[in-house]
Amino acid sequence: MQATVFSQSPDTGAVVVTDAGLSHDVSAEVVVASGLRFLRPGQRVSITETDGVITRLWIVGIGDRETIT
Questions:
Q1: Backbone angles phi, psi at 56, to 5 degrees
Q2: Which of 26, 46, 55, 66 could disulfide-pair with 14, CB 3.0 to 4.6 Å?
Q3: Assign residue 13 a region: left if phi > 0, alpha if psi is -120 to 50, beta otherwise?
Q4: Helix or strand or coil: residue 30?
């Protein structure tokens, strides 16, 4: 699923809005696990949602287990 970053805080995580217009909180742990140092408002990301909780976040176009160098 794809989403757009609405806001990000190093302490609390991020808020993303899906293409369907739904807002989701992303925990700081998921942001850290993504390997991304910063997210900026307006940035496009892919997310995995399980039972209403975002469990994975990555940059659109970067696939599973691919790293940004």
A1: -155, 145
A2: 26
A3: left
A4: helix
Alpha carbon separation from 32 to 20, 21, 66 (Å, rounded):
25, 24, 16
**All domains of the chain, ordered by start, with CATH?**
2-59 (2.40.50.140)
Q: Calculate the alpha carbon distances from 4 to 22, 25, 69 in Å.
A: 10, 12, 22
Question: Is residue 45 a contact partner of residue 58, using CB atoms and an 8 Å limit?
Answer: yes
Does residue 33 sit in helix, strand or coil?
helix
pTM (two decimals)? 0.82
